[in-house]
Design brief:
The complex is a heterodimer of chains A (233) and B (80). With 233 residues, chain A is α/β, with parallel strands linked by helices. Chain A has a single domain, classed as Class I glutamine amidotransferase (GATase) domain (Rossmann fold), CATH 3.40.50.880. Chain A is 23% helix and 24% strand. Chain A contains 5 helices and 11 strands, in the order βαββαβαββββαβββα. Chain A starts with a strand and ends with a helix. The mean pLDDT of chain A is 97. By secondary structure, chain B is α+β, with helices and mostly antiparallel strands. Chain B has a single domain, classed as 2-Layer Sandwich (Mth169, Chain: A), CATH 3.30.1280. In chain B, 35% of the residues lie in helices and 26% in strands. A 3-stranded antiparallel β-sheet of chain B has the order 2-1-3, with helices on one face. The longest helix of chain B is centred in the last third of the chain and has 16 residues. The mean pLDDT of chain B is 95. Chains A and B meet through loops of A and α1 and α2 of B.
Chain lengths: 233, 80
Amino acid sequence: MKAAVLVFPGINRERDMARTLRLISGRDPAVIWHAETELPSGTDLVVIPGGFSYGDYLRCGAIAARSPVMDAVRSYAAGGGLVLAVCNGFQIACEAGLLPGVLMRNARLKFICRDIFLKVERSDTPFTRGYNAGQVIRVPTAHGEGNYIADADIIARLEGEGRVIFRYVGPDGTRDPAANVNGSTNAIAGIINERGNVLGMMPHPENHVEAAIGPTDGRGLFNGLVEALDRAA
Amino acid sequence: MKARVTVTLKSGILDPQGKAIEGALRSLGIVGVSSVRQGKVFDIEIDGSDRVKAEMLLTQAADKLLANTVIENFRVEVMG
């Protein structure tokens, strides 16, 4: 795995992400500053990490999405390169047009910082091959604006094309309005683009990978990515 | 030239912040407010004095950055 982690002013989860990528793949990712106009050659995974790029000014992710490096990410994604966008990264990916929809203020207006449960809807993507379809995983979440919305046509397409990858559920995997922590449409926690190479998700799988710290349900995502990249190589 | 770009949420987009403000007004005893929707105002200074050019520039600015047209509408005014 030759990963590149993007860094924008105000991003604060890039070290957690880099640490996890190193732990799982055995290789340090490149850390790429937002003013770069190119990705390192041979990059096979771009990660847009979480944080508060530009202090969430204007709209979450709006300013970062217009950075020079994002032009490079757009052409990389257009060529089929894998992009994992987590939390603020998901907001940036939506603002950059890599994924449809918008992440609005949480419906109950509170910043949510705790473990939640996700149902993995599909296991046949490069991001989720380390899980079984229908599996429930426990991962942390930390955001104030994760309420996914899009117009009815886009939601219908996402659902119809199986592009909802993660959904907020109760611990037993059932849909429950109380488990939909931020009020997202259809409890959507993560989606994939049409081509299937860009995943955006609000929760933080990179923070649940070490038994010494707690649950390790996030490992599946990174193990799956390593496997998918090995097979493609 | 002075100009203003006003960004508002499209109708049908849920506005939790507006709802909270609405509730706060009610609890302050300000009655008769049936709904609040929060938007943004950008006061912008433009070089030169060509109004048509200024409007084009502001429309571009709003379209590219100031508004997310998936959820927001914008209005451009050049005030001279």
